[in-house]
Amino acid sequence: MAGLGYSDARRQAAAAAAEALARGRSPADATRAAIAAADAFFDHVRRALDLDAQLKRQACAAGCSWCCHQIVAVTAAELDLVAEAIAAKPPEARAAIAARAREAAAKGAGLDQRQWWAARIRCPLLEDDGLCGVHTARPLPCRAHNSADASACRRSFEGEAVRTPVLAAQQGIWAHAQAGLAEALQGAKRSAEGMNLALAVDGLLRE
Ligand code: SF4
User: Fold this and answer.
1) Which range marks the domain in which residue 28 is found?
2) Which residues line ligand 1 (CB under 6 A)?
3) How far apart are CA 93 and CA 133, in angstroms?
4) Is-above-0.90 flag for pTM?
């Protein structure tokens, strides 16, 4: 359908991020712009394709965090946005994130996605109550995650080979929005290289 494809999601996120960078805004602002564009695009698709019934069936809820135990690949611009959110926290919360990031790096350095998931390594930004500690600043791949069956997520986390039913449109839009952000960063001669969020947070908080 015209205007509703993943390439449109990529283009709109890229345009929003590129405009922010062209105005001299920071990479974190460019990430915010890409997120806003992708949010608006997803809402457009939701209405056009009548996804509300499927969205109602989604099992994702505050405190459910099985998916926060995998490698999250981010750009430096997304990391900047996360870094802002961490910097705004009180010292004890920052210290707890730093400790979890050190632990994640010690367990996970050199692991690929499959090995990381099997090792059940928790994202250092995941709080003990199961909530994301940087929810409004979370990277784009985190916004892609979704599931219609939390028990399938749990069983996968526990090592069972199980397929989790997902809303493909949500995954695809956010994945392509991240590609659009990367495109804008490259266009502005900035790094768009992907990095492991947990390891990058560890590096950030050791500096
Ligand atoms: S940044 Fe937040 S949403 Fe993303 S994996 Fe970490 S805790 Fe989960």
Assistant:
1) 6-206
2) 68, 72, 123, 125-126, 132, 134, 138, 142
3) 9
4) yes
